[in-house]
């Protein structure tokens, strides 16, 4: 699927997308509509990005053809009650972020042992600057362009 197609996640019955955008009392979309669209826009703004459904979730790949690698995967209540995303992170970032804000960051199943970070998007307010940095860093990691140290914004890692 090309970046210009940008579909929502299909309902389980194969019908219309299930991201309608109704808000909770905290201003967070119940079904993630506006949040998912904002995450999608961040991902698709980066170079050489395609969106495809993987494991039933919108997933963003960086690179071309067979060399394309996942750098962000939506986790819309995939294995738990959270709306968030998973992304690769620099060495030590997962531990730092989970210790800093365990209500916002978590070790995701399947890929957490490889240092990926889970980021909650259903805990208001979403820190979109931090999300943008994590998305950009994940893209840089899978494309070989490096990433920043999460404890020191703007600093490159070795």
Descriptive report:
By secondary structure, the protein is an alpha+beta fold. Helices cover 23% and strands 20% of the residues. A six-stranded antiparallel beta sheet has the order 1-2-3-4-6-5. The radius of gyration is 15 Å and the shape is globular. Residues 1-31 and 152-158 have low confidence and may be disordered.
Elements, N to C (H/E): HEEEEHEEH
Shape: globular
Low-confidence stretches: 1-31, 152-158
Helix content: 10-25%
Overall mean pLDDT stands at 78
Query: Given the structure, what is the number of helices?
Result: 3
Features:
globular; 3 helices; 158 residues
Please outline the helices and strands.
Blueprint: H1 33-44, E1 49-54, E2 57-62, E3 69-76, E4 83-87, H2 93-100, E5 105-106, E6 117-120, H3 128-143
Antiparallel strand pairs: 1-2, 2-3, 3-4, 4-6, 5-6
